[in-house]
Structure formats: C-alpha cells, structure tokens
Amino acid sequence: MASTGHHDPEALDDETRWRSAGDRIQTLLDASAGSGTVVHERTQQLAAELTDLYGAALTRIVTITAESAPELVDRFAADELVASLMLVHGLHPHGRERRIEDALDSVRPYLGSHGGDVALLDVVDGADGPVVRLRFAGSCKSCPSSAVTLEFAVEDAVRAAAPEITAIEVVTAEAANSSGLISVDSLMSRVHTKGTHNGAWQPLPEIEDLHPGEVGGFLIAGVPILACRVGDELYAYHDRCGQCHDSMAGAALHRPMGAPVGQAVLRCPRCHAHFDVVHAGTGVNGTHLDPIPLLRRDGVLAVAVHAEATGVM
C-alpha cells in the first residue's frame, strides 16, 4: 500500500480542494504579474471585488441566522472552511482565546498519543501584536521531533484559528517556574537551518484502511512513511530505524510478553531493534523512531511531512 503524495486537483475531494483554494488563487495572482503591471493590478482588483461581494453576502447570512436560529452560528464556526471565511470578514462568533483553546483540543489526541500535552497560558500584547504563550508537558518537551510537531501540528492549528496573532512563545513545565520563554523560531532552529522549509500537510486517507495490528508503507511528497494501527489508534513514523538507520520496510507489530492490551512494539526486520509505537517510538539505548504528526483535518486524515527530516529516500 503506497501513495505518491501527488494529486490531480480535479480528483480531490471537496474538503481537500477548498483547503488548498487559497494557495491556488495566490498562484494565479502571482502569475498575472508576468502579463504586465496593468493586467496584474486589474486581476488583484477583480479578486478584491469578488472577496467583498461574497463577504457582504456572508455577513447578511450570518446576521439573518443569528436572529432566527442563533445555534446555527456556532455550527458554522465549527466548520473549518466556513470558520476561515468568517474570520476573514470579522464574523466569527467566538473570541480569540476560545478559538485557540478549540484549536489546541484538535491536536491534543495526537500529542496525547505520544505522551504529551499542551496548554494555553495566556495571550499577551507584543510589540507587533498579540502573542500566544503555550506550555508543553510530557514527552512533547523533550521529544527529538518536538520542533516538527510544534510547527506542523500546534502552530498550524493555532494560526488557522487565530490568524491575527503575530507570534507564539513556548514555555516548558520546568521553565514556567523561572519564566524562561522559548520562542518558536528558537525551538525550530534545527529545522529551518537545514535549508528551505518544504514541509506541508498532505492528505493520506488511505491510512484508514489499515487493520488493527497492520503496518503499511506510504510515500508522501517523496518522504517514505511507516504507519500502523494499534486498536483504534493510528500512528505514523518516518521509515527509518532509530538503531541501524535503514528502512523499516517489512516491520511487524508485536505485543511484549505480559504487556497489557494496547501495548505494541515495532521490530526492525534488519537489526531486530524494538520501538514502542504507542509512546513516541522510544527504543533501547536512547534510540527512537521519528514521529510524524497525524491529524484529522475537516474529516480527512493528513500527515505533516518535512522532506529533510529523514535521510531515507
């Protein structure tokens, strides 16, 4: 079972298609610049007129709905696509903190699957605008892949829910006692110093076809991924053994003798190293697998991949 990670826009389901609409619109606007200044300006003006038109219509819809069926406004806000348009036009019914808390709730299942959690400390006024302060707990504060996890899972969710924020600051449980802040840029420096950032969420609905105890390999945007299902939970890792650094293709799940139901280790078929897939891929002698964020976005399972996070090709 594998996926190339490349999709024909015409073949995408509605949720995936509309999620990427903003990028396609921006690409078209950028392309118009090659036709001269006048064409580019008129194209931008056309886009602005269309945005204002649907914004005015959306405003009327929300106003009428709030008067006749106010409970529906909350349902609109719970839909990610509709909520994003409401945010653009200042129509979202929930305040900033509520939106951020809801965003963190959406990523907690992933963080919890690796023994971690995140909490909103507060939102403060920074020099350039609102700054969100978060605290990580559990393995998230020490996991070797926490930088990628933060960038793709937590930061992505928070910025989508509250696009008006200008920065995110993270403080670990220990640092909370000494008020030591770690900026997002500092925390993710090992990711960004490797070159051009080329990570993105990629839809991977095929992963849901995995049966309990099954391990599958996928190729997403050129990145080999190993995924498995333990009970009802799905886990994804870069396809690279933490001990021999070779591909884990052919790996199988095993339940340690005497371990309770729900515990599972993934055994490398080459060096026979064992990794706890339920707890962030930890192994023996300090080895580990590299977890990949796996979240359901608008009903579609997606993984966050960063091509430079693994050397396996």
UniProtKB/TrEMBL annotation:
Location of the Rieske domain: 201-303
Keyword Iron listed: yes
A single GO molecular function term of this UniProt record: iron ion binding
The organism's place on the tree of life at top rank: Bacteria
Key words, A-Z: 2Fe-2S, Iron, Iron-sulfur, Metal-binding
Any single biological process term in GO: iron-sulfur cluster assembly
Function according to Swiss-Prot or TrEMBL: May be involved in the formation or repair of [Fe-S] clusters present in iron-sulfur proteins.
Official protein name in the record: Rieske domain-containing protein
Organism: Mycolicibacterium moriokaense
